[in-house]
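Quick one, T. Sequence first:
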Amino acid sequence: MFQIAFSIAFIIFGLFLKNTSNQGFQQSRRFSTFFIVIGILTLIGGMILMLYKSK
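Structure tokens:
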């Protein structure tokens, strides 16, 4: 369950970086796609692991 919450936090932070206009985060905007992809992959992996544990 922690893995799913952590992946959603990565996705939300990636979307925040992509849409922010704050000057402090402007240099980190290029990492937004990285955080979104890592979040999605972790979410998919967590779902697959939960599926295998339930069988």
